[in-house]
Amino acid sequence: MANINIKVAGKSTIVGTFIPVGxxxxxxxxxxxxxxxxxMLFKGTKTRNMTEIKQAIDKYGATFNAWTSEEHTFFYxxxxxxxxxxxxxxxxxxxxxxxxxxxxxEKEKQVVLQxxxxxxxxxxxxxxxxAQGTVFPEGSNLHISIIGTRESVKNIxxxxxxxxxxxxxxxxxxxxxxxxxREARNRVxxxxxFKKAPIAYNTKSVISYRNDISQANMVLTGLFYINNTRERLxxxxxxxxxxxFCGRFFSVIREQHxxxxxxxxxxxxxxxxxxxxxxYAGLKPExxxxxxQLMLEQLTNEISQEELDFARGKLLGSHELAIDKPSxxxxxLIDSSLGNRDYNVYLTNYESSIKDISLxxxxxxxxxxxxxxxxxxxxxxxxx
Length: 384
Prior knowledge:
By secondary structure, this protein is of the alpha+beta class. The chain has two domains: 2-178, 2-Layer Sandwich (Cytochrome Bc1 Complex, Chain A, domain 1); 206-381, CATH 3.30.830.10. Helices cover 44% and strands 19% of the residues. It contains 15 helices and ten strands. The protein has helices at 33-40, 50-58, 84-97, 102-121, 123-135, 150-155, 158-168, 229-242, 248-256, 288-300, 305-322, 326-338, 344-347, 350-355, 359-369; strands at 2-6, 12-19, 63-68, 73-80, 173-178, 206-210, 216-225, 263-269, 274-283, 375-381. The strands form two sheets. The chain has a five-stranded mixed β-sheet, sandwiched between helices. It has a five-stranded mixed β-sheet with strand order 6-10-7-9-8, with helices on both faces. Helix 9 packs antiparallel against helix 10 (288-300). The model has no long low-confidence stretch (mean pLDDT 93).
């Protein structure tokens, strides 16, 4: 059992435990089991039923939740400093002593299936899922979404849950973060589970049609590979150039051409160094190809010194705001631990690290990514 503790001023603390297992660890026939297991840990332990678990936290007005990603699962409570011990006791009990009541199993499957349908009904969520499923090849274990499929969720048995829990929940990492953190003294190293090499993908466009929508939802997506923390910092700067009210996407696609209400570039890094990107827009179907052209121009055009200087200021300002949030710090600690990076780069050395990145480095990296290999994925309204 590893621990990361940060003690600083503040009236609240995030108490959490993360387990380095997610949908990327799952065989296809039980895809979604990591997410389903997350749900089932709230259903009872050897000493508490599910009502007692919820009441033990809710009575303090605390935030109690969990999330599952492709590579980890995180359970957390944000609570007054006076009740940290109670929060830790509840989370430890859930992670170490869950019993997975049989009568709750089928009921919770219905909840998860409703969650899946909620995402499918939302065309913006659906186009992101479609993009992930068509950009990652079978065998990557990333081609099926975190929640799984209807068939795989229905396939999960209590024996599957118990076996998966016994295999993966033996070495959890405990986090405790209070107030504004600027240094983490304990370092957690997690052995890399996944091959560190670029993943090839098919760049052919994927277009899907629906009867129940009037607007097109599109993403320009693809994969690239980063080797080290410095390249991760370059991505942060590039993100600041592209996104925001003064970013390239909003300025060109919305303000100059009035194609969309909102548009953004999203980036997700995996521990193997693979990064997926999505340039998103919701707009009229006949404008999709034009929006694709505009996105490619903004992603591939060289960055000027003026843009870089502006992005630095914006990035460092937003980092200062985010680093005050214990939940943001938790994500830094988790992602850095999974990627075997020093998280103090983000907690204590971020400003100096960002200022050390040169214009030449950023533009060289953009060329290396080669956004011209982007894949168009879109959900369009079916013509009547």
